[in-house]
TrEMBL record:
Highest taxon of the lineage: Bacteria
InterPro entries registered for this protein in UniProt: Pirin, Pirin_C_dom, Pirin_N_dom, RmlC-like_jellyroll, RmlC_Cupin_sf
Pirin C-terminal domain segment(s): 176-275
Official protein name in the record: Pirin family protein
Family the entry assigns: Belongs to the pirin family.
Domain Pirin N-terminal: 17-123
Organism whose genome encodes this protein: Crenobacter cavernae
């Protein structure tokens, strides 16, 4: 596939529920500003419990981006934000100099046995913004551009593409879109950002006539405009943007930074309890020993 720079297969992980990890990988540490990509679920959770809830934990130097296909999650953070995340919405939490948050499964989702599935990503902040004040923004599904293009339903989550612009405010050039294709549908991937990748979340597809397995991330050549065609109903994510300023980022646990000393300092802050706590939460995830 001449349009493909790297083909990355998902690595299965269990973080209390199943995830498929695509970024970072040995082949690509980032695509545009995206430095982390997990496809979580689909998973159902034990009713009447808090099993697999993600207790409060810290972040620095990044923005988390959550997008669900099904189910729901409840976000809480140290700013006092309380937000239920529903399918099609975008949750954007800018960690900056540091923020703690939790992600829990709502009781109604547990009790009804609804599967939770979605994409969780981290966007590295520009070097001059990595110590910014933390912030939280939520964009409901109906606030984000959606249209039919060729044989695809296009949901533009972040950035500009094909004459449309998302209202989601980010700190660097970023492209993020959800694509749904029915069997037989085709879509020409636009050269809408300097760096791009296409993730096949589900379905059987070909790229320029070559078959691609589900749970594969295709990092595309700059300027290439390949045609993706669905042999069955398929769901894909298009992501990318401008290359990271300042070069490769350091990553340790939930921390992203341009300098090692920033990570070392925040390790001490979390261990010493200096993060602003998440209101209503009494639990937390301790600093890993590694």
């Amino acid at each position: 596939m001449s349009a493909v720079l790297h083909e990355i297969r998902a690595q299965a992980r269990d973080i209390g529920f199943p995830v498929r990890r695509l970024l970072p990988s040995a082949k690509a540490q980032s695509v545009g500003p995206f430095v982390f990509l997990d496809h979580m679920g689909p998973a159902r959770f034990e009713a009447g419990s808090t099993a697999s809830d993600v207790r409060p934990h810290p972040h620095i130097g990044l923005a988390t981006v959550t997008y669900l296909f099904s189910g729901a999650m409840m976000h809480r953070d140290g700013l006092g934000s309380v937000q239920r995340i529903e399918p099609g919405a975008v949750n954007l939490m800018t960690a900056g100099r540091g923020i703690a948050h939790s992600e829990r499964i709502p009781s109604d989702v547990r009790d009804k046995g609804i599967a939770v599935e979605g994409i969780q990503m981290w966007v590295a902040l520009p070097v001059e913004e990595e110590r910014c004040e933390p912030a939280f923004d939520h964009y409901p599904e109906e606030a984000l551009p959606r249209w039919q293009e060729g044989g695809a339903d296009v949901h533009l989550l972040i950035g500009e593409m094909l004459g449309r612009r998302s209202p989601v405010a980010v700190k660097s050039e970023t492209l993020y879109a959800a694509l749904s294709l029915e069997a037989g549908g085709a879509f020409t991937v636009p050269a809408a950002a300097p760096e791009r990748a296409l993730y096949i979340a589900s379905g059987e597809v070909t790229l320029d006539g070559e078959p691609v397995a589900p749970a594969t991330l295709l990092v595309l050549e700059q300027g290439a405009t390949p045609i993706v065609r669905a042999d069955s109903a398929a769901r894909l994510m298009l992501l990318g943007g401008a290359p990271l300023d300042g070069g490769r980022r350091l990553m340790w646990w939930n921390f992203v930074a341009s300098r090692r000393e920033l990570i070392d300092a925040v390790k001490d802050d979390w261990q010493a309890g200096r993060f602003v706590p998440v209101p209503g939460e009494t639990e937390f995830i301790p600093l890993p020993e590694r």
